[in-house]
Amino acid sequence: MPQTIRDELLYKGSILFCDHHLSHAASAFLCSPFEEAAILTVDGVGEWATATCGVGRGTEITLTKEIRFPHSLGLLYSAFTYYLGFKVNSAEYKVMGLAPYGKPRFDEQFRELIDIEEDGSFHLNMDYFCYDYAMRMTHERLHGLFGGPPRRPGDPLEQRHKDIAASLQKVVDEVMVRLARSLHEETGIDRLCMAGGVALNCVANGHVLRETPMKHLFIQPAAGDAGGALGAALYVHNTLLGRPRTLTFRDPFLGPAYSDEDIESYLVSVHAVYQRLYRQPLLDKTVELIEAQHVVGWFQGAMEWGPRALGNRSILGDARNAGMRDTINLKIKFREGFRPFAPTVLADHISDWFEIDCESPYMLLVANVRENRRTIPSVTHVDHSARIQSVDREMNPLYYDLIQTFYRKTGTPVIINTSFNVRGEPIVMTPRHAYECFMRTDMDDLVIGPFWLRKEDQPPIPGLVRGDKAFAPD
Ligand SMILES: [Fe+2]
C-alpha cells in the first residue's frame, strides 16, 4: 500500500496508518465535546475487529475490548438485510424502518443464532451464515429456521418478514444496551461516543440513552465508514503529533455551496421560470406552500456531511397530514411506502413533543411522540416512534426560521424533512441536480437559494421523462 500511494500520488512524505476501528473511535471522540468519554465502535468488520470498547482522555484513546470476525453485529444485520430482500451495505435502514410493523416472535430462533453475554460480547453460530467463506450471506439452515428462502427484491413484504425485522432489531438493541452498560461499569463515565455503521441505527441509540446510565451521547453524522477519514486525520493530528484538540463537531454543513449568482445563472441557462424573494417573504411563501399541502424541494447553503439531509438538501411537507407520507413516497421518491418520514422539530420544543430530554441534531435518535402530541401522523411510526432531527438557530438560522414561521402560523413546530433525491440515487448536490430532480418528479415547488419555482410554470426539458432514472445528473 505505501508503494502504491507513492507511485500513484508521487508522494514523498511519511505514511502513517490508523486501524479501522481506531479511526472510528477517533472520529467519534476527538471531535466530541468531551474531555473524557467512553467509546463504543460497532460495524460489519474492519481488519479483524467488528466492535471495540474503550475510553478517550484528552488526545489519547485506549481500546480495551474487541470482538472479532466472524462474530459481527453489523454482518448479522446485513445478513438479514439480504434475507429480507434488501440491498446489503446500503438498505439496512429499511430493515430498521420495517421492524415496528412486526412482532418479535422469532426470539427463540435468534437465540439459536447468537449468544449474548451479560457484558454485551456475543458469539454467532456460524452454521447459519456463509459470509466468512462464500459470496453469500446466509446458509440454507437459516432459511429453514426462519420458514423459507430469502425474499426476492420486489416480492411482497409478508408479516413474517416484518416479525423477523422486529426480532433482529431487538437483538441489536439488547447488544448495544449491554455493551454501553458494561462500559459504564468499567469506566464510571456517563458520556459515550459511538461510531461504526451500527451507530447509525437510531432505534438502538434511543435504547442506549433510555436504558443505560449513559447520560450524554455523541455521534457525528457520518458515523459509518465515510467518517473514517475524519477519524484517521484527527488521530494523526491529535494523538500521534500531539497537537491539542480544537475541533468540536457541531455544524454538519461542510459540503459544496453555491452562490445566488451560480444558482441564477444555471436557472437562466435552462430557461427556468422563477421569482426572487427577500428572506422573510421567501419563508412566508414556503410556509404557505407547505400549509397548502405542497411538496417543496428546499435547497440552501452548503450540503450536509453524512448520509442524512438535515435541512439544506431536503424535501419538506406538512407533518400534520397523514396522506403526505404516501404522496411523497409515491410521487417523489418512487419507493416502498412502509417507511415513515423523519420530523425536524425546533430544538426548544423537542421535549414538549417527543419523549426525549436532549437534542438530536443529526437525526440519530428515535423516541416516541408524546401522547398529547399525536397530531403529526406522517412522521409518527406505527409504534408511535419518530426518527427525530432537532434544529437550533445557531446551527441553521434559515431552516430554523422557516419552521419557526410555520410554528407561529400553525402552532406546530414540526415539519417533514426527507432527503432531496429519488429512490436509488444520492442526495442532490448542485443546482442542476436539484432542478432535474424537481422536474422529473411530481414535486410542486422548488425553493433554491432565494428563488421560488412553481412546477406548472416550467418549460419541459427535452428528453426528460417523469420518474426516468436514466436521466441521471452528471
Ligand atoms: Fe467500519
Question: Number of helix segments?
Answer: 15
Low-pLDDT stretches are 470-474
CATH architecture of the largest domain, by name, is: 2-Layer Sandwich
From the spread of the alpha carbons, the general shape counts as globular
**What is the count of distinct domains?**
2
Per CATH, the class of the largest domain reads: Alpha Beta
Each distinct ligand: fe (ii) ion
N/C terminus separation: 31 Å
Helicity level: 25-40%
The name CATH uses for the topology of the largest domain is: Nucleotidyltransferase, domain 5
How many β-strands, per DSSP? 16
What is the assigned CATH homologous superfamily of the largest domain? ATPase, nucleotide binding domain
Quaternary state reads single chain
Strand order of the largest sheet: 8-16-15-9-10-14-11-13-12
Strand percent estimate? 15-25%
Q: Output mean pLDDT.
A: 94
Pairing-aware structural class of the strands and helices? alpha+beta
User: What about the largest sheet?
Assistant: 9 strands, mixed
